[in-house]
Amino acid sequence: MHESNNRDIESHVLSSIKNVKSFSYNEIKEATNNFNQSNMLGRGGFGTVYKGSLKDGTPFAAKVLSTESKQGLKEFLTEIQTIANVRHENLVKLIGCCIQGRNRILVYEYLENNSLDQALQGFKIGKVKLNWGVRSLICAGTARGLAYLHEELEPHIVHRDIKASNILLDKNFIPKIGDFGLAKLFPAYATHISTRVVGTTGYLAPEYAVHGQLTKRADIYSFGVLLLEVISGRRISSFQFSSTDTFLVQWAWQIYEEDRLIDLVDPNLDGYPEEEVLRYIKVALFCTQAAAARRPSMPDVVEMLSKPMKLHDMELTPPHVVQDSINLSRGCGLSNSSNTKSNSLCPPTISASIMYSEVVPR
User: Fold this and answer.
1) Active-site option among 117, 161, 179, 266
2) Does 63 show up as a binding residue in the annotation?
3) Is the pTM of this model over 0.70?
4) Is 161 a catalytic residue?
5) Domains of the chain
6) Following DSSP, what letter does each residue of 24-82 receive, concatenated?
7) What is the pLDDT of residues 247-279, one digit of tens each?
């Protein structure tokens, strides 16, 4: 009975999407040379990604879910429904899928430079050139993709898992947001959605991690963390100082309070425009404030990143990082820093004009 219901759901989903081709398992198997190890692009909790080629020579990336995958049928179908009919320069394009027996495979466009996470690692060992021009391109493009999901689609989409490994890069380092297995459709009339907490530690907004209250501002918090990773060159998953674990967001706030923001910049990054880089860091701090209402919308973020702005950082309030289930706190967020520039962590929503103003050329 359960399998019959699954087949009904699958049929319903596949009949409701227009731009996705249905592949047979054998087609993908042949196109990836029998899922050859030499074609493997990456592996994760969900399964494995392989490079393949369509009959016309077009390369693709096949995300093959393992039978033990954390991503079940519901998440698999959510990913198809969410991204199938959406087209944007900064979103990964879904070409097709395979639902055959116990096999679950998503076929995406192939992106030559893999993930941002791998690019940041490659830069450290000299394999990838990530100068400031490339980094700013990645940040701004990701912001535009997220703004499109949040504001231009109806219903809006909250991604719920924005992180470096889910930002893929094409041959020109144009960023594309991928992995929509945890995405939620967000009706325009909804103020928030109460839901189970999923995502990645360190990227989770406090109000979502603590209360399960999901809004678009949760994605904005995650994007702020991502900005800090790109600017600093540090991976949030391995961010440590001495014997004490310190999250990147906490460290960024600490050096902001000590008025030495330039120390956050990747020491391997040469020849960057200091004023612009400092603006990007402050945008990240606006995005990662503990109180969701204090964070800018993604269109505001795009605006702040795209041109010279005077950011009113005297309006900034501290971040909060939920490290694990033991440390969950009450309220909209508690700062680990006692020396803050504001005593209020839960102020009312602020307008864009309070956060920034355009610089008018003389």
Assistant:
1) 161
2) yes
3) yes
4) yes
5) 7-109 (3.30.200.20), 116-358 (1.10.510.10)
6) PHHHHHHHTTTT-GGGEEEEETTEEEEEEE-TTS-EEEEEEE-TT-SS-HHHHHHHHHH
7) 889 999 999 999 999 999 999 899 999 999 999
